[in-house]
Known about the structure:
Blueprint: H1 2-13, H2 55-61, E1 69-75, H3 93-102, E2 104-111, H4 114-127, E3 133-136, H5 138-146, H6 154-160, H7 163-171, H8 175-179, E4 181-182, E5 185-186, E6 201-205, H9 206-212, H10 223-232, H11 263-268, E7 276-278, E8 284-286, H12 293-305, H13 318-326, E9 332-335, H14 343-350, E10 356-359, E11 370-372, E12 381-384, H15 392-405, H16 410-417, H17 436-448, H18 454-460, H19 467-482, H20 490-508, E13 512-514, H21 523-545, H22 553-583
The structure holds calcium ion.
Amino acid sequence: MMNRIISIALALCLLLSMTACTGVSRDDRSEYTPTQEPSSSPNVSETEPADDTNGEEEDRYLKVFDPPIIYTTVLAPPAGDVLPEGQTIEDNLRSRMFTRQTGLKPKVIWSASGEAFTEKMNMTIASGDIPDYFQVNYQQFEALVKADLLADLTDAYNQIAHPDIKAIYESADNADIKAVSKGGRIYGIPKADGLGNMNPVLWVRKDWIDKLDAEEPKCIADIAKLAEAFMKGDPDGNNVDDTDGLLIMPNYDSANPGIGSVSDIFTNYGATPNQWRVQEDGKVIYGSLMPQAVEALELLNGWYEQGLIPKDFASWKEETYKQKVTSGQAGLLFGMWWLSWSYMTDTVINDPSAEWTAYALPKESEGNYIGGAPNPASSNIGVVSKEYKDPSVFIYALNNTYNAMQQPGYGAEMEEAAVVSNNYTPMTIFPLSANAIFDCSVLAYRYANGEITRDQVVELTPDLSQKEYNLMIADCAKVVADAESSYDHMDDWSNSMGYTIGMMAMYNANVEFVRSDYSGITPTMERRKTFLDKLELDAYTKMIMGDTGGKSIQEYFDEFVAQYLDQGGQDITNEVQEVVNALR
Ligand SMILES: [Ca+2]
């Protein structure tokens, strides 16, 4: 196993040459730039240096209420979930942990799952009768601000938010804080995600590559050869033609990709579906309409016509996708680095001879990998009702839940609570520095390979608050590297795979991130975006499937663009342009 980790990463580290992928054109690639926000910048106070926080200072940030303060909220448990006996939606392992950490006790006024939750939330917002604290998506946040239902959190944030937490938001240029600010005031507590968290890397069955003596892919175009080998070479050795080529899902969104998304093929070809981009001439363009998308669509259509992509992929749900992989029917798929905890683990449980590796493939073998970055504050925005007497209690809760994550023994406590879904956790902000996942992966990898000691993992962790977590991951990677049979330690194996294989694939490919230049919601978007999203999804899927009524991809794409603009897209573009111009 150790040899496997070393050889895979070394192979990725070595600069790749002699491939079919030539003709680098970097001009259409965009560097990672901080997001420009529609609202004016908030009045955020300077972060105090962490050294100034002595014991007394720490106490100031970590107030735990005793007796607990009861507040109202809403939750979204998984559909059909049954809690262990003796536990309820308000009193379970997750809520008890939260109350212990914060001195806050949730009173759940309603709950619903999946789409029913979204519907009920929208009705609640429309009624104006909202809970004390709850978590919303960006669209709901905008509606709440517009209806003037939210508490102003600016002073509480400036005075009470822990310097470590402010530093995390600052690591992404405060983009998330700016996204939840209106007129210079902060109205939400945003989740800040680590970069790379949602990028679909290419997971590949390494044992199949070895068995078929197939070539490792070095650029996106190489995927075709591998898909063909996996389809036709009988990699599972049962003498039956029963394995798939490349698995994909109908998701092209570079700001919010899902499992199976081919969004990073588009970003590497120079288009950014569902991101707004300011071009060199200052004009904004919607990324799904960018002409560079045509080449990526033609490539995918070619693969589809050759049968390398399953014919019925457009109708798949995630269950289908996962089942194909874990049952050993497919060994080539797009998915986030954290798929190791489910897909990869389940595969090796079903078939101990399975081995996985991951790639982040650029358009040209010499080029960097371009990853789509999420819009700031795109999920889990904590908000407080304007009617609530003291919103600062939720900033203390943020400090305390974050502080708890840094304590020794947190991992064991979490493991115990994990029998209850995280959806019952009353506050799930868990902010993460922009580079936290990359930093953690590199340290774990270096420790596992004997380049640094365990103490050095701690010394080299740049973020004070990340030390405990990085050490835990590094230990997992080390156990896996040293164990003769790493599959005897599946939890450690899952952790190690995610960080040292999935995330390191992106790191070794010199990932550059592209982020939308606008992430707000305009008036026409409110009315037309749902319709336009469907138009876009259908058009992209039809082009990949060649269902274009005899038209070429280019002709069909041009018609799609014209229709999109005509059906509201042009009005939206004008509105976004206006906001972007106002910021220039
Ligand atoms: Ca077979």
